[in-house]
Structures are given as structure tokens and as C-alpha cells.
Amino acid sequence: MIETPVLLFSAVLFLLASGLLNLIWGRRFPRQFGWMTGFGLTVLFASAVYGWNELIAEGELSKIFSRGWILPYNEPGAVTVGIYQDALGLVAIALISILSGFMMLDTLTRAPGADCRRERVVAAISMNCAGIALAWLALTPWLSVIGISITALGGFLALGDKWGESDEEAISATRYAWAKWWGIILICVGAGILAAARTPLLWGADSEWARNIHSHDEMGTALLFAGLFIQLQSFPFVTWVTSSSSGSVLKRVFLNQLGPGFAAFALLIRLEPHLRQFNAFTVFGWIALFSAIITSAIGLLQPTWRQSLACWISAGFATAFSILFFSGAPGALGFLIGLLLGGLILAATMNVLGKKEAVAGGMAPGWLRFLAFLGVAAGTGLAGFVSAVGILQWITSGALSSGWAAVPILMYFLFSLNGWSLAWGTLKTRPVSRVSWYHVLCLVLIGALSLAFVWTGTITAGFFGVDESFAPSLLNSLFLISSSTPEGPLTLTWAYAGLQLLSFGLAYWMVGRKRDLWLALREVFPRGSNFISSGFRLDEVATSGFRGTRKAGLWMHWLVESVVWDSGMARGLTFSIKKVADTVSRADAGLSAALLHGLAKTVSAPAKFLQLIQNGDVQWYLLFAIGSGAAILLHFLISKGLT
Questions:
Q1: b (16+ CB within 10 A) / e for 537-556
Q2: Of 515 and 145, more confident
Q3: How many CA atoms lie within 13 A of 377 on its CB side?
Q4: Is the pLDDT at 607 greater than 70, yes or no?
Q5: What is the DSSP letter of 111?
Q6: What global pTM score does this model have?
Q7: In 3-state terms, what secondary structure has residue 65?
Q8: Number of independent structural domains in the chain
Q9: Domain span at 624
């Protein structure tokens, strides 16, 4: 019987193979290879469900399928790979399989010609899901990094489906690739520094892996977190997020933002108990907090809803990172699940609203507006949704009790304001005549997955601070926690509700009325608004830095070639060096010849004498024999006479 870890890994490999086949032959056989990817997603989901049932039936918390790769096992610097089968990873795989299946359904049912390279999108979905699954299944950080890389590659393929239409698409894909691969390089360097003097880190095997702290650990941790933070695409890494694109917003959001961010959080959540003691963890928790504030402000002043939605999701990832620092992994995962589901719902809704062609039959377009508000509620942490678990644990864990309490309050207010502004903006969009019923049904089911009672067994996710559970909490069981009801002052939870109501009302005042006041603000302050919405011109600063480096290199080349090398001093120095080298060469040649001549003189005389003995005739042998006998006789007579 095949073991479950092997079955899960085989499903991941099958998805990767189907993605490659779609990329090569998908244009000739779109339906065949498209449904092949759908079959792979089904197998992956079924394997995750079977693996979870197996853990429950056997009463085990996890299973490990480990294999060594480089250097012997358990030696410092060894690279080990394997599969870690636990409830957390299996739930994440099942969730991403469902969402990828929705993406496949949306792609395959799209009208022919609506996307210029549909096979690339299907291949991107396969690689995206396979990479995320591998990141959550990985037993070690190294295999998680491979999963993150595969997910980034899938996003790059998705951006490349419209390269032939405009230069903006190629520029957007290039920016995305640069950001992702620089992040992966930093992750590898940081992980290499941490692993240099330690045994391989296996999830669930050693909770005190980082007990021996070395001087270089802080640098390794900082580089590792910096690489993971780049994957989240929050400020200051928003140059790709704020770039314009004419492609499908659903594809862009899911394959280029939600998928890579979810894969990066697989490594973040696994590493959190091991690296929390380092100072770099605290520093990046506050960096994420300020990054969410700036990214939300950038999103509010974006000229189009596409870019504003991308900034809202990026700010949400930074918020999840901050929740991970303040309240731990369970709250961060709860908020992350809400952001993942809510972002997908909002992107799919606004993608349909942005279409110009009519849809025959179907349901009333009013459902789309309802779904847009549902997606924002799921993503911002409204009470009753799973994301509220993270927000409530965050505000009751001490984030608002310090002297910097205004910072998280401002962050959450701006994040909620950006989300509700997007929701109110859908009321001004003129939708198509009808909406496909299966599209609405799928989004309603995804919205149902974001409700709190599915994950926590409660109605409000603990808003009132009392135990209101009517079923076991799935979220608690993933981290082996007995209870997660927020324990803190009730005034803090009501302050959270007040921030939600204030952002909801202000968003209506700014966007929901006849005139969009955010656009009016851009008209009144065009330079300042453009400066903020462009990410504070960081893209231009980076470009200027590259240009300055190139000019500095050219100037140094000119300085060496024209000023230094062609000057009289350089020629004189060259002449002196050549003369000294020639003199040393001649002296060396003369000395070598003299030594060889003296050695030949010294050796030639004994050699000729021995050669004479060897080549002599019989008379010489008799002469040497008589002389030797006389010498022996003389020695004998002398010795006797002395006696």
C-alpha cells in the first residue's frame, strides 16, 4: 500500500507535469490538457482528505517521510528533504486545491479568444498549486523554498500570457520576476547562514533547534525575513503592484499575489516558534506594521480599482505578518485564510463587473455587489468571519497596550477604509446584463468557507470575549490549542467594532456617493497624489540607482583607460617594470647556466672513472685485483707487527 506522504508528493509531481505539458502542447489540445490539470487538482484534494482521515484514525499528530540529500544525516550544514504530513499542511493543501479548481473552471469556461494564451494560464495554475502544496508539505525549509520558487514561476507564466499585446505587460512581468527572485536569493542566503553550524531543521522534530545562538544568526534571520517579506509585495516592494495591466484581474490577484503570499507564509508560520527569540523577528514585525500603513495609503490614492485592490491585498499580507509577531501563528493563519478567500471573492466579482460583453441567461447582477461586500468583510476581519480571530487576538495580545498603540489603530483603520472603498466603488460600476449562475454559486460557497463557524465553531469568532463555541475549533486543532477565545478588556473589542463602523461610513462618504472624493483629491493635489500612489517614486529611485551605478562604472573605465593608463607616469611605470623584469630574467638565465656548468664539472670526473672501470679489459681487472690483494696483505702485516 502506498504511504500517504508518497501519494501527496506524487500528486504534486503530477500537477507539475501537467503544467509543463500544457505549456508545450496545450495550445493544440486545450481541453485535454486542461482537464488533466483538473484531474490533478482532484487527486491532490482527495489525498489531503485521505491523509487527514488517516491521522485521525491512527491517533497521530503527524507523519514524517525523510530522505537525506547532501552530506550525512544530522550533521551541520546537511541538506535534508522530506514530506511532513500534519493537519496544518493538509488543510492548507485542501483549501488551495478548492480555490485552484475555481480558477480552472473560470479559465476553461471563458469564451474562446478572451485570453490570448490560455494554455499559459492553465500551466500557471498547475505550477502555482503544486508550489504552494510543496511549501506546506515540506519537511525542511529548503524544500519550502523550492515550493515558493515554483509558485513564483507560475505567476511569471501567468503574466506572460499577454506579452505580445503591449510593452506594459512585459515590463510588469519583468518587475515581478526581479522582485520574486531577489527575495528567493535572500531567503537562501539567510537560511544558509542559519544552517551553517546546525543540524538540519525538521518541522516537529526539535523545538529547541535555535537554542545555541551564534553571532551571525541575527544577520541570517534578517536576510531570511527580508526575502520572505519581498514575497508579500508590501511597501517598499510595491513597484509591481502599482503597475497597470489590461489582463484578467482575477488571474493577476490569485496567481501573482495570493498564491505566492500563501506559499511564503507556509515558511513563516513553520519558522515562527524557532526564530521568535531573535531580535530580527521583532524588527520585521514593526516593519510590517508600518508597511501596511503606507501600502494602504498608496492603495487609497490609486487611479484605478485594479491597482487599489492589489495594494489592499499587499497591505493585508503585511497585516498578517504583524499579527504573527504580536499574537502568534493561529491568529495570523485565521486572518490569512480570510484574506485569501475574501481577496479571491472581491477579485472575481470586480473582474466580472469590468467585462463589457453581455452574458446570456444567468442570475441578476445585484449578486455581484453583495459578493463584493462579502469579500471585503471576510478580508478585513469583520466579526463573524475567520479573519476576525486574528484581529481580536491581535488587539488583545498587547498590541494596543504600549505607547505605540496609535500605530496599529491607524494601520487597521486605513486597511479597512481601503477595503470598504473598493466595495462601495462596485455600486458605481455598470455590470453586464446577467451573471453566470455557476460563477455566483462558486463565490457564495467560497464566502461560506470564510465564516467563523467553519473554522472556530463560533458565531462571532469570540467578539464578546466569552465561550460561545458550539463545535470543536478546527483552527485550534491545527496548532494543538485548547481554547483561543480572546481574553482582554471588552473595551478593546468595542474599539475594534468602532474602527470598522468608522471606516465603513467614511468609505461611503468618500466613494459611495455621487462623486468620488478620492478622485477629487487627486485632482486638487495632483503632484502629491501621484507621488504617493506611485509608491513614493521608489521605482524611479531604484532605476536611478542602477543608472548611477552604470555611469559610475563607465566613469571608472574612462578614468583607468584614458587618464591613468595613457599618461606619462603610467608609461614610465610600465617601462620600469619591463626593464626590471628583463634584468631579473637575464640574471636568472645566467645563474642557472653557471650552476648547471659547475654541477656537470663536479659529477663528470667520478663518472668517467666509474665508466673506465666498467668498460676496461682483463689487464685492468688483474691490476685492480693485485692492488687490492697487496693492500689487504699490507694491512695484515702491519696489524701483526703492532701486536
A1: eebeeeeeeeeeeeeeeeee
A2: 145
A3: 19
A4: no
A5: P
A6: 0.81
A7: strand
A8: 3
A9: 567-642
Q: Are residues 579 and 609 in the same domain?
A: yes
Residue 261: pLDDT band with limits 50, 70, 90? very high
**336 and 443 assigned to the same domain:** yes
List of residues 6+ apart from 518 with CB closer than 8 A = 300, 301, 421, 510, 511
Say whether pLDDT at 115 is over 50.
no
pLDDT computed for residue 4 by the predictor:
77
Map residue 67 onto helix, strand or coil: strand
Cα dihedral sign for 109, 244, 299, 241?
Answer: positive
Question: Are the CB atoms for 265 and 319 separated by under 8 Å?
Answer: no
Burial code (b: 16+ CB inside 10 Å, e: under 16) for 588-614 equals: eeeeeeeeeeeeeeeeeeeeeeeeeee
Q: Looking up cell 485535454, which residue turns up?
A: 32
Q: Are residues 426 and 297 in the same domain?
A: yes
User: Are 472 and 462 in the same domain?
Assistant: yes
Q: What angle do CA 561, 565, 568 make, to 5 degrees?
A: 140
322 and 407 housed in the same domain: yes
Judgement on whether residues 529 and 578 belong to the same structural domain of the protein? no
Q: Do 517 and 584 fall into the same domain?
A: no
Which one of 518, 535, 552 terminates a domain? 535
Residue found under cell 460561545: 468
* The residue to which cell 487599489 is assigned: 308
Single-letter amino acid, residue 72: P
Cβ–Cβ under 8 Å, residues 287 and 324? no
Q: How many angstroms separate the CA atoms of 218 and 576, rounded?
A: 51
Three-class secondary structure of residue 248 per DSSP = coil
